[in-house]
Amino acid sequence: MEQRNINIFGSGSSGGGHFDKVKIKGDGSITDDIECLQFKVHGNGSLLGNVKAQAFAAYGTVELHQNIKSEIIKVYGSMDVAGDISGVKISIRGTGDVAGNILGEQLDVKGGISVKGNCEVENLQLDGGFEIDGLLNAEKVNIGMKFGDNRVSEIGGETISIKRRSTFLGIGKGEGTLSTELVEGDHIYLEYTTAKVVRGKSVELGPGCNIELVEYKESLKQHKSTEVKENRLL
Hints:
The protein is mostly beta strands. Helices cover 0% and strands 75% of the residues.
């Protein structure tokens, strides 16, 4: 059976269902759950139901009132999600505001992201700013802070690197800082981080850190500008 397509040009709305390709150019809304192979938004999209796709791309502004599940998710602009995001490769160039959780294999953010729940991925690459109310859990965490008072409840992973990254056009370092309760991993490097506990095999604390307790199994290095109240060899 041949799949149907949805094309909204200008301003309009459509119901949900099963489709091949869905395209919004202008200002469009989908009023119910939708499942498709490809979903593209150029402009403003309001999606009232759950979205399931193989590939989802948004160029502009998109509001999702439920959950989105797609193998590939690309956002160039802003995304506001009332539920969860799950995907294999999630790429955000702009801003993302997620009321639920992020679940996936790869999360690549250049801009800013806010997550009310947990963020659980295999590989996180983030350049910009972030707020995560729950847990950040990833095998590889690579964060370049460019701005703001970034925060996350706890960070867990194998390799964790959190640095200040150069600002626009590489002019000067960013001014970002991080506050968290716990950072736990195998190999940890931190800059400008305030934490209660940092626990790992090898721990290196760069400039600007303030840590209450460091627990390490193999090695601990500390920048002269960093303060550690207590360190303990496990």
